């Protein structure tokens, strides 16, 4: 037996080791096909700590506690197995062999046996979990849908046998030592294996036991070698390879501080260097094709390592809002598809074309993005279904960076191939020409403040710079133009004013942060907007910024450092929470409005506030201190929150596939029994309001239910008639506030402290501040002798200082009432006020508006899409309904089919996926009627100074001619293959230099190649 065991074991080893070494070299060759990955080796100590924590402590796996724990047992057993296999080689020659020094040390023995047992239990549990969640019963709802089962079964069987083998071989060792009368042959040294030995080997004599040990050692070694050879033959077998590659994938993750690849998006890198406008102008001809990822080898080597490491666990898929609403996108299947293609294509890149088979040639020429007819690797519907919600990245136990990869592919489609959903064309135009995705006239940016009873300071008008105030209130495009978001803006301004916070706004000096452009792949428009904003922020000496929009918040906080501006950015819920803690705002009012006693509130986490920036507690704390309200959590909350469907520029795209994400989320909110659905982002508000309206229309939601921003609810609770602030109510509120302060959350995440709390870049949430002045600067801004007022005092003070009749102030009531009413509005009513500017000169601006930001408004409104967001349900701007005079050139030059030919509007699902929902989403409602031109005329008559006219301005203050420009409409791959549509990249730099909204002589909808 011994001879056989030795021959078999050594023969397999001699074959397996070189074979595996060859496979590893092949794998490295594939990974090296990728481009450079920048910034992946800084902070080596921190990276090593993160890697050890995530692997040995399974911190990210334990986001799913039970499964994570079972996998942890299996993982530890696998580590022990390595030493057991090593010991097996020696046992082939000496059945009594034990590891030197520790071999009979009781703790080592106990741990080995314990882990062998737990590993066996763990793998059995995981086998059961896989079978219970098998797609045979659950279909698409299974997270294993699309995973390769034979590979999973193979790995499970191996782990089961090897884990059990530890106990078997030790059981035989125990019996042998017992027979030999060794001091170690007892249950103290074999606490578990002793029972196995008695059960299996009690009848064997010494020779029999030795043969059993030889046999088991042979089985251990042989199984390990066979396992290695099989995975070496399958380099795309991530379920096995991740046991080796995960260490590296985690070590080289994007963020050296251990956080996930969320928050800001990585810039485009050309040859490892971040792209900026200067670099874009100097781009070499051959580098134009590197604007984004157009071929699998355009991914960085880390990207290909990501694909290699995917375990096919499907956690990402289970959380993906697109997948959960029957769209073809699954982050898991996307990663698997890229992996298969990378490993199929990479070896062919250096091959002699003459030697390639037809199939290999086809693989080599396969488009990365393309539908079934084009044999594309990723279907366009898959690519454009992503909301950038980050759930996949948050969930992935091996730190795969899905969002970066998806947006890199979008960039190439937009910048190089001009191939993107038709609807995006309008927002690109609006962003380029008006600085906001709706294409609204910037001079209306201060309209929201008109109804307030106090003056909102505007930089360049009321204050010279932000040095004179504490906070810049970043209003955002939605906050300035979208009717319901304006209520949030008003509520926040009123609360800040009530609390005595000194703040100012930029007015029409503000433009879109560029989030929709960047997330849609239009990096050039994003860079242009970001540069423009960064310049303004520098000039105005901005340092501390508060934003009501989760997207603005994320972009300003995480992406503007690239443009040379470092800001302390907080979300309005963070700042308001701080003010409540400091008792500068005291919610006390029961009764009318959002804070009405007995109301149940639920909270929807905006993805770009929660998952992307880990702000979970501040809004919840605010809601929990509203007197009389009951807070009800949705099942999917915090880091497992479900997207509203608006991120990743999906707000402006039609949702034709599957069911609606916003309706799915609204149903969950309604199911909590909530009377009010609280949000912290204007995009979420639009989406959930739309979902609620749909459910109310169908009678599935109560008419009283409404969607409101947290700030509106707080305002309603803070602001009331002082006479109503009876002493007992004050006491109640103070007690509620005190309890909230007592329960001041630590920085830890609610669900998974390990995965989040160690993240340094969690921003300065109000709940984690230890020094109030760090956030509010209250030591300077608020006199020390202004004690935290009681609620009544606060009201009286506010009323006296700001002349605000609190009891019947319109803003608070309107904020609440308006919000409630708005939830009844149809989608088109949610869109910002339409602006018909065709053929009309820009309206005159008020003196206030014109002083500092004239150049911002110096654009030709004739050229813009006039309708605001369509009623399509996504807030998408309505494409120009009819060719207009000013669009003649555009329509003539467009080689682009109508929207239904666009990639985003097609019905083709990923052929490998389950088909999308059979019933498409409802057709878009008609667009809102545009605002009559007369408004312009009225304003003109008012004698206000124009900010721009059709007269050109050259240079400072001079009006520049703005002409319509041909617009590169999105094209389908059929109509505009790269080689035909974009034969040269020479015009990219021209586009780059002409994108400024002050010089719109050659704008093109955002494509670098027009
Ligand atoms: S970011 Fe969200 S929508 Fe996009 S793939 Fe990941 S989970 Fe799906
Ligand atoms: S990408 Fe990550 S979460 Fe998704 S299946 Fe692969 S390993 Fe699992």
Automatic annotation (TrEMBL):
Presence of the UniProt keyword 4Fe-4S in the record: yes
Low complexity bias locations: 737-748
Domain 4Fe-4S ferredoxin-type: 301-331, 374-406
UniProt keyword annotations, A-Z: 4Fe-4S, Iron, Iron-sulfur, Membrane, Metal-binding, Oxidoreductase, Transmembrane, Transmembrane helix
Keyword hit for Disulfide bond: no
InterPro entries: 4Fe4S_Fe-S-bd (IPR017896), 4Fe4S_Fe_S_CS (IPR017900), Cys_rich_dom (IPR004017), HdrC_iron-sulfur_subunit (IPR051460), Helical_ferredxn (IPR009051)
Region (Disordered) residue spans: 737-1010
Residues spanning the membrane: 6-24, 69-90, 110-129, 150-169, 212-235
Biased composition (Pro residues): 919-929
Superkingdom as given in the UniProt entry: Bacteria
Biased composition (Basic and acidic residues): 794-805
Composition skew (Acidic residues), residue ranges: 881-893, 931-943
PANTHER family in alphabetical order: IRON-SULFUR-BINDING OXIDOREDUCTASE FADF-RELATED, IRON-SULFUR-BINDING OXIDOREDUCTASE FADF-RELATED-RELATED
UniProt-recorded name of the protein: 4Fe-4S ferredoxin-type domain-containing protein
């Amino acid at each position: 037996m011994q001879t056989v065991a030795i021959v078999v074991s050594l023969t397999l080893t001699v074959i397996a080791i070189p074979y595996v070494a060859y496979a590893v070299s092949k794998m490295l060759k594939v990974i090296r096909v990728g481009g450079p990955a920048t910034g992946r080796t800084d902070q080596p100590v921190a990276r090593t700590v993160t890697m050890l924590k995530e692997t040995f402590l399974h911190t990210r796996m334990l986001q799913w506690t039970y499964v994570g724990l079972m996998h942890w047992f299996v993982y530890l057993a696998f580590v022990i197995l390595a030493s057991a296999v090593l010991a097996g080689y020696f046992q082939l020659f000496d059945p009594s062999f034990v590891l030197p020094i520790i071999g009979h040390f009781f703790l080592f023995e106990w741990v080995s046996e314990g882990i062998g047992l737990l590993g066996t239990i763990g793998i059995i549990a995981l086998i059961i979990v896989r079978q219970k969640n098998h797609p045979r019963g659950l279909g698409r709802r299974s997270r294993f849908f699309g995973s390769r089962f034979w590979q999973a079964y193979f790995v499970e069987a191996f782990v089961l046998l090897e884990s059990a083998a530890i106990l078997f071989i030790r059981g035989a060792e125990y019996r042998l030592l017992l027979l030999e009368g060794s001091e170690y042959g007892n249950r103290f040294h074999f606490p578990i294996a002793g029972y196995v030995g008695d059960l299996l080997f009690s009848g064997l004599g010494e020779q029999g036991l030795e043969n059993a040990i030889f046999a088991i050692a042979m089985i251990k070694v042989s199984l390990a070698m066979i396992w290695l050879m099989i995975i070496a033959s399958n380099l795309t077998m991530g379920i096995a390879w991740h046991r080796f590659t995960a260490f590296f994938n985690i070590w080289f993750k994007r963020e050296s501080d251990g956080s996930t690849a969320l928050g800001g998006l990585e810039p485009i890198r050309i040859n490892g260097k971040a792209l900026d406008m200067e670099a874009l102008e100097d781009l070499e001809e051959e580098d134009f094709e590197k604007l984004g990822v157009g071929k699998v080898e355009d991914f960085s080597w880390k990207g290909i390592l990501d694909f290699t490491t995917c375990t096919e666990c499907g956690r990402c898929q289970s959380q993906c809002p697109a997948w959960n609403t029957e769209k073809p996108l699954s982050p898991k299947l996307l990663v698997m598809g890229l992996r298969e293609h990378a490993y199929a294509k990479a070896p062919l890149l250096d091959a002699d074309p003459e030697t390639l088979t037809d199939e290999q040639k086809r693989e080599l020429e396969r488009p990365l993005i393309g539908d079934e007819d084009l044999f594309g690797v990723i279907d366009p519907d898959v690519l454009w279904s992503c909301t950038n919600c980050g759930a996949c990245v948050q969930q992935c136990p091996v730190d795969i960076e899905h969002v970066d990869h998806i947006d890199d592919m979008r960039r190439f489609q937009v910048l190089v191939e001009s191939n993107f959903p038709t609807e995006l064309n309008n927002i690109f135009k609006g962003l380029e020409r008006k600085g906001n995705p709706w294409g609204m006239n910037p001079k209306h940016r201060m309209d929201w403040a008109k109804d307030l009873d106090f003056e909102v300071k505007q930089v360049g008008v009321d204050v010279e710079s932000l040095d004179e105030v504490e906070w810049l209130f970043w209003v955002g495009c939605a906050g300035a133009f979208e009717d319901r978001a304006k209520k949030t803006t008003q509520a926040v301004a009123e609360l800040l004013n009530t609390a005595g916070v000194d703040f100012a706004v930029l007015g029409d000096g503000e433009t879109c942060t560029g989030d929709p452009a960047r997330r849609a792949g239009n990096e050039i428009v994003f860079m242009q907007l970001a540069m423009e904003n960064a310049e303004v922020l520098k000039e105005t000496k901005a340092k501390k910024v508060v934003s009501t929009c989760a997207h603005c918040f994320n972009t300003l906080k995480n992406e503007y450092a690239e443009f040379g501006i470092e800001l302390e950015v907080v979300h309005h819920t963070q700042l308001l929470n701080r003010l409540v803690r400091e008792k500068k705002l005291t919610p006390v009012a029961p009764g009318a409005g959002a804070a009405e006693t007995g109301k149940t509130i639920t909270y929807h986490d905006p993805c770009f506030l929660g998952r992307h920036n880990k702000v979970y507690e501040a809004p919840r704390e605010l809601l929990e201190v509203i007197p009389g309200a009951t807070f009800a959590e949705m099942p999917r909350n915090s880091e497992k929150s479900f997207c509203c469907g608006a991120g990743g520029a999906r707000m402006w795209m039609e949702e034709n596939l599957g069911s609606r994400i916003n309706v799915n989320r609204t149903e969950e909110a309604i199911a909590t029994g909530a009377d009010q659905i609280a949000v912290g982002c204007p995009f979420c508000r639009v989406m959930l309001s739309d979902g609620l309206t749909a459910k109310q229309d169908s009678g599935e939601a109560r008419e009283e239910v409404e969607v409101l921003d947290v700030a509106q609810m707080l305002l309603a609770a803070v602001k009331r008639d002082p006479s109503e602030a009876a002493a007992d109510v004050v006491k109640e509120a103070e007690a509620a506030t005190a309890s909230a302060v007592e329960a001041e959350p630590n920085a830890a995440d609610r669900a998974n402290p390990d995965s989040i709390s160690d993240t340094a870049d969690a921003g300065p949430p109000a709940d984690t501040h230890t020094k109030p002045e760090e956030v509010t600067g209250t030591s300077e801004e608020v006199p020390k002798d202004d004690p935290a007022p009681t609620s009544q005092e606060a009201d009286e003070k506010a009323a006296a200082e700001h002349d605000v009749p609190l009891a019947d102030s319109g803003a608070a009531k309107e904020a609440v009432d308006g919000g409630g009413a708005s939830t009844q509005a149809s989608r088109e009513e949610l869109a910002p006020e339409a602006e018909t500017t065709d053929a009309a000169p820009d309206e005159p601006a008020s003196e206030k508006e014109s002083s500092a930001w004239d150049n911002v408004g110096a654009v030709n409104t004739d050229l813009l899409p006039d309708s605001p967001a369509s009623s399509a349900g996504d807030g998408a701007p309505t494409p120009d309904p009819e060719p207009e005079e000013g669009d003649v050139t555009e329509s003539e030059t467009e080689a682009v089919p109508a929207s239904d030919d666009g990639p985003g509007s097609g019905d083709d699902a990923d052929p490998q996926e389950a088909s999308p929902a059979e019933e498409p989403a409802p057709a878009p409602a008609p667009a809102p009627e545009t605002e009559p031109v007369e408004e312009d005329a009225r304003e003109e008559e008012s004698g206000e100074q124009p900010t721009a006219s059709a007269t050109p301005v050259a240079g400072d203050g001079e009006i520049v001619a703005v002409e319509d420009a041909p617009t590169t409409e999105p094209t389908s791959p059929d109509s505009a293959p790269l080689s035909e549509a974009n034969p040269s990249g020479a015009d990219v730099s021209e586009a780059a230099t002409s994108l400024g909204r002050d010089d719109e002589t050659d704008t093109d909808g955002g494509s670098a190649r027009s």
